[in-house]
Design a protein that fits this description.
The protein has eight helices and eight strands; from the N terminus they run αααααβαβββαβαβββ. The chain has 209 residues and is α/β, with parallel strands linked by helices.
């Protein structure tokens, strides 16, 4: 891990290698502009105090001097932790459990206007459908995930929640297409407009704006 203690050890190791006349040190000494024209033998003949080894380590790390490295390293490390490499969650994909992946994919395509992205297996046991920026995965299960009647007893057990624009237009599209609704378009107390569609397996798919 990059930290000041490790860099100090690297500088001490350079001094040790120079003392042992390790010719690999020559190229690194030539990294300092004032020594750029030295041969390996000339580089090894130099007096090579720890301060010069530290300067080399600093230059290799992108700093002008050891003092600049010592002062700037904490800031550089902090920026590195906030770099684009920091894990970022981009989206969540709901997985709907179904008894027939192909039939479910056709329902999403023909009734809800989704495109079938892929079906995996023969017969398919996994698949994906999408419309606009929304994606739903479909997974085959041998038996219902919920006990019989639990959806009715509990209420609001959604398998997917999709956010849309122009929900009135989408509701009209699905209504004319013969979709089965758990409840039609309505305004919720918190301000969202929602409707819920029932898929062939009894899964509730909620659309909200």
């Amino acid at each position: 891990m990059l930290n000041l203690d490790n860099l100090k050890k690297q500088a001490k190791l350079l001094v040790k290698w120079h003392r042992e006349r390790n010719y690999s040190v020559g190229e690194r000494i030539r990294g300092l502009p004032r020594y750029s024209k030295l041969t390996d033998a000339q580089a090894l003949a130099l007096k090579f105090p720890l301060s010069e080894a530290q300067e080399i380590i600093a230059v290799e790390a992108g700093f002008e001097s050891w003092e600049a490295l010592r002062d700037g390293l904490p800031i550089a490390l902090k920026k590195a932790t906030l770099s684009p490499g920091t894990p970022t969650l981009k989206r969540a994909v709901p997985i709907v459990f179904v008894s027939d992946v192909r039939a479910s994919a056709l329902f999403f395509r023909d009734t809800l206007g989704f495109a079938i992205d892929f079906l995996h297996g023969n017969p398919p046991f996994y698949g994906a459908v999408s419309r606009g920026g929304a994606c739903v995965h479909l997974r085959f299960v041998h038996e219902p995930v919920f006990d019989a009647g639990v959806r009715e007893r509990e209420g609001g057990l959604l398998s997917a929640y999709l956010v849309v624009e122009n929900i009135k237009g989408l509701f009209a599209e699905y209504k004319s297409g013969g979709a089965k609704f758990v409840h039609p378009l309505r305004k919720q107390p918190w301000g969202a407009s929602v409707f819920i569609v029932l898929d062939p397996d009894g899964n509730s798919i909620c659309f909200s704006e």
